[in-house]
Write a structure and sequence with these properties.
- This protein has 223 residues and is an alpha+beta fold.
- The chain is built from 4 helices and 12 strands; from the N terminus they run H-H-E-E-E-E-E-E-E-H-E-E-E-E-E-H.
- A hairpin with an 8-residue loop joins strand 9 and strand 10.
C-alpha cells in the first residue's frame, strides 16, 4: 500500500514538473517576442524621425538660399518710391572758391527712395525753375537710390554775374518723377536759416549725385 502511494506521488510530481517547464517556456517565448516587437518599433520610429529631420533640413536650406535673398533684395529695390521734398530734408549753402551753391537732400523717411534726374528749383519769386546743366532730356533715366538717412547732392555753379544774380532767402523745390515726363513731387518751400545765397536766373543745376565731390565735379566747381 505504501509503495503504491509513493509511485503515485512520484508520477504526479513528474507531471507537475513537465507542466511548469512548458509554461515557463511559453512565457519566455512571449517575452522575447514582445521585446523583439518593441525593438523593431523603436527602430522604425527612429528611422522616421531621421527622415523627417532630414526633410526639414533640406527645406531650411532651400528657404534660406542665396536665390531667395537676391530676389527679395531686388524686389525691395524696385519697390522704392520717389523721394519727397520737405522743408527739413533740404539744405542750401554757398561755397566761395569757385563760387557755387550746393543743394543737399537727406532721406528722413524710414524707407528707401529714389531721386530722378535733377531738382526743379525756383529761387525767390521766379516763375520758372532753373535749367539743367546736363541739357534736360539727355538726363532722362538717371536716378540715385537712397537708404533711410542717406544723402544726395546737386551743384549750381555761380561764377559769373548772370549766374550769381541777387541774394535769395528761400527756394521752392520739386522732385521729378521717373523721367522728365513723370509727375513732380512737391513743391516744398525751403528757407535759408544759415543766410542767403546768390543765384541768378541764368544759373543751372546738375543732376543728383550720391557724393558732394561728384556733384561739384559735374558743375566744374570742385575746389
Amino acid at each position: 500500500m505504501t509503495a503504491h502511494r509513493t509511485r503515485h506521488r512520484s508520477a504526479a510530481y513528474a507531471a507537475l514538473a513537465i507542466g511548469l517547464s512548458g509554461t515557463l517556456a511559453l512565457t519566455g517565448c512571449s517575452g522575447n517576442a514582445k521585446k523583439s516587437r518593441s525593438k523593431s518599433q523603436k527602430q522604425t520610429s527612429s528611422s522616421a524621425g531621421s527622415s523627417s529631420t532630414s526633410s526639414k533640413s533640406k527645406k531650411r536650406r532651400v528657404i534660406g538660399g542665396g536665390a531667395g535673398v537676391g530676389a527679395g533684395a531686388g524686389a525691395a529695390s524696385r519697390a522704392a518710391g520717389t523721394c519727397i521734398p520737405t522743408a527739413d530734408s533740404l539744405r542750401f549753402f554757398q561755397k566761395a572758391s569757385p563760387s557755387h551753391v550746393v543743394v543737399e537732400f537727406t532721406n528722413r523717411s524710414g524707407s528707401p527712395c529714389k531721386l530722378y534726374d535733377a531738382p526743379a528749383l525756383r529761387f525767390g519769386a521766379a516763375k520758372e525753375p532753373l535749367g539743367f546743366l546736363e541739357g534736360g532730356p539727355s538726363m532722362v533715366g538717371h536716378s540715385v537710390a537712397l537708404r533711410p538717412r542717406g544723402h544726395a547732392w546737386a551743384s549750381i555753379p555761380t561764377t559769373t554775374a548772370a549766374t550769381r544774380g541777387t541774394k535769395q532767402t528761400f527756394a521752392t523745390v520739386e522732385f521729378l518723377g521717373n523721367g522728365l515726363r513723370g509727375a513732380h513731387r512737391g513743391p516744398a518751400r525751403v528757407d535759408f536759416p544759415g543766410g542767403p545765397v546768390s543765384v541768378g536766373p541764368a544759373a543751372k543745376v546738375t543732376d543728383w549725385q550720391v557724393s558732394l565731390t561728384k556733384a561739384e565735379l559735374k558743375s566744374g566747381s570742385a575746389g
